[in-house]
Design brief:
The complex is a heterodimer of chains A (72) and B (441). Chain A is mainly α. Chain A is built from 4 helices and no strands. The longest helix of chain A is centred in the middle third of the chain and has 15 residues. Chain B is of the alpha/beta class. Classes of the chains: A mainly alpha (72), B alpha/beta (441). Bound molecules: flavin-adenine dinucleotide.
């Protein structure tokens, strides 16, 4: 999943347009409930099942996209 | 204008206060020997109060926050930092924050499905939702069985509905679940502490709202007077209680739907306020009192979630600025019904033993309080009535429609923040405006 695709998921879940490659999900208003919806979208798109801590670790589209690639 | 208000909960007292301000004569008839209804305070140490009923609010609860400001009541944050304890699949786990040790992807799928169905519903008139018939005919339990594959999602779903609505998934329609979640601001707002519906508690207890409203109304409020009959004729309405009759030009019935139907109304209303499918929300609250919030020193928030009851979740509700530490345990849904039926010593034993398993580092509590809302004859359902399959199409259209001189209030008549304190207060404002408007030449 490339950075743009992850950004698109952030946008949809957070319901805000202004997400860049370096936007921090939790700073942009994400909480644990919304985090699970990011992870389910990632799993649907890639088959990769990440944990909540992975998103805490990699809270930007940039970082998360790398994490998905590593796990794939 | 001379109005008889039935019920001295938030809805009835808000309506009464506003009607008095608009120049009406008002009598409030309350069945219990106290005001407050589903808000109720318990004094766990001198000056230290906890909420046996409603407790939490957030910034979208604008009618409530405005009322708090008028009454000079303050809020206190409901969040406590620290790690949580979980007893879900594994015996016990301590985790930083509130995230449970379950598959995040499975929970995400559950919230996706809930979000989808919550968006479908028409919040101002759920019975007019497209596809209402299908959603109304389906119980939340069946919906979950069809939609949720992962066992973690199913487990969490029933805990979530218990926490949010005190509902047993087998007894609530998907339409009502979706409506309730939407009405309260959506799943995310309802679920959140910070920035959500559990942002604050009312310092000193939520019961003070009704106590202060009642104090200002003075002897207009009469306790221990359950209204048994409401008879209307061309000139007015007569309410009968075991102590006598009260006559008014209008009446406001501000009690839960099942209790409204228990009043002998003549002539009878065109439609009932509840049906056999209308279920009680089921909640028992227990309070475990400790000499101080000892768990905080151990880096724990007091928050726990368990798959097995009775205490499906615990939260730190220690009175702000006092010494005592209080863990509130929530027993909800089907578990509440089972637990409420047990003898008192067994109830206490089970709760204390579970707290000891969850928090083995704590000493036994120094006091224990239990509030059984399931068995309260003048509540019959908490947090609020649960509309079962078939209810919305039958009950929805008449939710706020006056029956002659009889007007309806109560949190279950508010499509905004249904089931919450906020909904109750909004219904009180709505009904006061309705009556004043009618009387304006
Ligand atoms: C355990 C629990 C936790 C809750 N948690 C929250 C929370 O955190 N946040 C939140 O916003 N809400 C919460 N709620 C819901 C909230 O308490 C209610 O939505 C709100 O208090 C309802 O107010 P009301 O005026 O509509 O009804 P009620 O409070 O039920 O008032 C009705 C009144 O009518 C009286 N009455 C009944 N029948 C008659 C009769 N025939 N004649 C005369 N009087 C009668 C009753 O005694 C009662 O005083 C909770 C409820 C419970 C029980």
């Amino acid at each position: 999943m490339n950075v743009d695709a992850v950004s698109a998921v952030f946008r949809e879940v957070l319901e805000i347009p202004e997400v860049t490659a370096d936007s921090d999900f939790f700073v942009m208003g994400g909480d644990s409930l919304l985090a699970t919806r990011v992870l389910s979208a990632v799993a649907r798109a890639t088959g990769v099942e990440l944990e909540f801590d992975d998103l805490l670790d990699a809270p930007t589209p940039n970082a998360l996209s790398k994490k998905i690639a590593e796990a794939a | 204008m001379n109005v008889v208000v039935v019920g001295a909960g938030l809805a009835g007292l808000t309506a009464a206060t506003e009607l008095v301000a608009r120049g009406a004569e008002v009598t409030v008839l309350e069945a219990r020997e106290r005001v407050g209804g589903r808000t109720h305070g318990l004094e766990v140490e001198p000056g230290g109060w906890v909420d046996a009923g409603a407790a939490y609010l957030g910034e979208r609860h604008t009618a409530l926050t405005a009322l708090l400001a008028e009454l000079d009541l303050k809020t206190t944050p409901a969040t406590v930092a620290g790690a949580s304890r979980f007893a879900l699949r594994d015996a016990g786990a301590t985790r930083p924050g509130r995230f449970p040790p379950l598959s995040a992807v499975a929970l995400g799928e559950m919230f996706d499905a809930l979000e989808e169905v919550t968006r479908l519903v028409r919040p101002d008139a759920p019975w007019l939702t497209e596809d209402a018939a299908r959603l109304d005919g389906l119980t939340a339990e069946r919906w979950a069985a069809e939609r949720l594959r992962h066992p973690d999602a199913r487990l969490f779903f029933s805990l979530f509905l218990g926490e949010m609505m005190a509902a047993d998934p087998a007894r609530v329609s998907v339409l009502h679940m979706a409506f309730y979640l939407r009405s309260g601001g959506g799943i995310r707002y309802l679920n959140a502490f910070e920035g959500g519906a559990q942002e604050w508690r009312i310092a000193g207890g939520a019961h003070q709202v009704c106590e202060r409203l009642a104090a200002a109304l003075g002897d207009r409020v009469r306790l221990g007077e359950p209204v048994l009959e409401l008879h209307q004729d061309a000139g007015g309405v007569t309410a009968t209680t075991p102590r006598g009759r009260v006559r008014g030009t209008h009446a406001v019935v501000a009690v839960p739907p099942v209790l409204a139907d228990a009043i002998d109304l003549r002539p009878g209303p065109p439609a009932p306020r509840s049906t056999p499918a209308t279920g009680p929300g089921c909640a028992v609250k227990v309070h475990l009192v400790y000499p101080s919030p000892l768990w905080r020193e151990l880096g724990l928030s007091g928050w726990s979630v368990s798959a097995e009851g009775p205490l499906l979740s615990t939260v730190d509700d220690s009175p702000a600025g006092e010494r005592a530490g209080v863990l509130t345990g929530f027993v909800t849904g089907a578990e509440a019904r089972r637990y409420a039926a047990l003898p008192a010593p067994e109830q206490r034993g089970l709760a204390v033993a579970q707290a000891a398993r969850l928090f083995p580092e704590l000493p036994p509590p120094i006091a224990f309080h239990l509030t059984d809302w399931v068995g309260e004859p003048y509540s019959r359902g908490c947090y609020a009535a649960l509309f079962g399959p078939g209810d919305w199409p039958r009950l929805g259209p008449g939710l706020t429609a006056p029956h002659g001189r009889v007007h309806w209030a109560g949190t279950e008549t508010s499509t905004e923040f249904f089931g919450l304190m906020e909904g109750a207060i909004r219904s009180g404002h709505r009904v006061a405006a309705e009556i004043t408007w009618r009387e304006t030449p």
